[in-house]
Specification:
Rossmann fold; four-stranded parallel β-sheet; 14 helices
Length: about 400
């Protein structure tokens, strides 16, 4: 941290030194004036934590009902792995089908409060869908830049929400360069990951919800699929805020960053003992949200992992898709490949001793598998019966 201070109530992107800005609150005042026992009386959304969110005018809040997602006790999968306290936090039920709704609800609400009319974002898919939805709800003009091979569901969603979509022959990093170049010329406000301070504030509500759903007893470990890593950074921030307000005590969860072998800059940096990551060349994965070759907040991700006693680990695409299918068949939960990657990492984490069988472990699923049908179709190809004509033309998958 550089120690720079910036005033609230005005638009911000990066700090003068080029680092992400983090919102700070008067937590002592919050401790005196706000009680966690009042939270159930608040909205059935992430806005139940409004006193530690940046919006000052209730009329500015742009909400589609995001947050307060299920915490599912994965009993059958846990029994198979010998982990009786295994849970899945399912953010796939959020508006637009992913956890991105949290960050974009907060970012667009603040943009509305500060008078923004046009917003722009580079995205690997789900953030684009969320931005398009919340911009539409706020009456803002949205400009989206996505890799050309983005999941079809994300592209169609953005078009349906009325966003201006540009497909780019490249990675999210190439999309980000285009947004950065065009935003000042076109009068767009950038809501690129960690280039404005409010998406992380929406994402941190994931940490508040985990604590609330466990009756303010934090779990032993949280497995988080790490692309841009804002959710990891946000949850770690939330745990510190709750500790400062006296809401939680004791040891914080081990933060475990899960990536895929085709794009693992955080894992490499962790293993090398580095404070920053290097750009991961030729990044590829079916988990589009994990195809982030150089996270802007890499140093904050690595700090959370190390301070918490966690670890960074990578799995293969094939293992992630297999784990996603297993989670679905055992628990009835169809996770995005990103969340499925965390399930795939569990056996190796147990074998290495990074997590213990008796510990309470939360796997964070960031999206619904329904957004990734192209990826899962490689595991579940459709084969049709050649004898369909005998049954009046019915097509029967084998």
């Amino acid at each position: 941290m550089t120690g720079e201070r910036h005033p609230a109530g005005v638009l911000h992107n990066l700090s003068r030194a080029g680092f992400p800005l983090l919102v700070r609150y008067d937590l002592e005042k919050a401790r005196q004036n706000w009680n966690r026992d009042w939270i159930p009386d608040g909205p059935s959304s992430m806005w139940r934590y409004a006193p530690v969110l940046p919006v000052t005018k209730p009329s500015s809040i742009v909400s589609l009902g995001e947050g307060l997602t299920p915490m599912i006790h994965a009993r059958r999968l846990g029994e198979k792995l010998g982990m009786p306290k295994l849970y899945v936090k399912d953010d796939g039920v959020n508006p637009t089908g992913s956890f991105k709704a949290r960050g974009l609800s907060c970012a667009i609400s603040m943009a509305k409060e500060l008078g923004v009319k046009k917003v722009a974002i580079p995205s690997a898919g789900n953030a684009a869908s969320a931005l398009a939805a919340y911009a539409a709800a706020a009456g803002m003009e949205a400009h989206i830049f996505m890799p050309a091979d983005v999941p079809q569901s994300n592209f169609i969603e953005c078009q349906a929400f009325g966003a201006h979509v540009t497909l780019v022959d490249g990675l999210i990093s190439d999309c980000a360069k285009l947004v950065a170049a065009k935003a000042p010329v076109e009068g767009w406000f950038e809501v690129t990951t960690l280039k404005e301070p409010y998406r992380i504030e929406g994402k941190k509500t994931m940490g508040y919800e985990i604590a609330e759903q466990f009756r303010w007893q934090l779990p032993d470990a949280v497995l988080y699929p790490t692309g841009g890593g804002v959710g990891m950074i946000g949850m770690w921030k939330a745990f510190h805020e709750m500790e400062a307000m006296g809401w939680v005590r004791g040891k914080k969860p081990k933060m475990i960053a899960v990536q895929v072998e085709g794009c693992m800059p955080i894992v490499r940096a962790y293993e090398q003992g580095a404070e920053r990551s290097e750009f991961f060349q030729n990044a590829f994965t079916v988990a589009s949200g994990l195809r982030v070759p150089k996270p802007l907040g890499d140093f904050l991700i690595l700090r959370a992992v190390r301070e918490s006693g966690g670890v960074a680990i990578a799995v293969s695409d094939a293992a992630a898709l297999q784990a996603g299918a297993e989670l679905a068949s055992l628990e009835g939960l169809f996770a995005a490949p990103e969340g499925a990657a965390c399930v795939a990492a569990l056996p190796e984490l147990l074998a290495r001793g990074h997590i213990q069988p008796h510990e309470r472990v939360v796997v964070y699923n960031t999206g619904t598998g329904l957004k990734y049908l192209e990826a899962y179709s490689t595991r579940f190809p459709r084969e049709f019966s050649s004898e369909a004509s005998k049954f009046g033309g019915l097509i029967t998958p084998r």
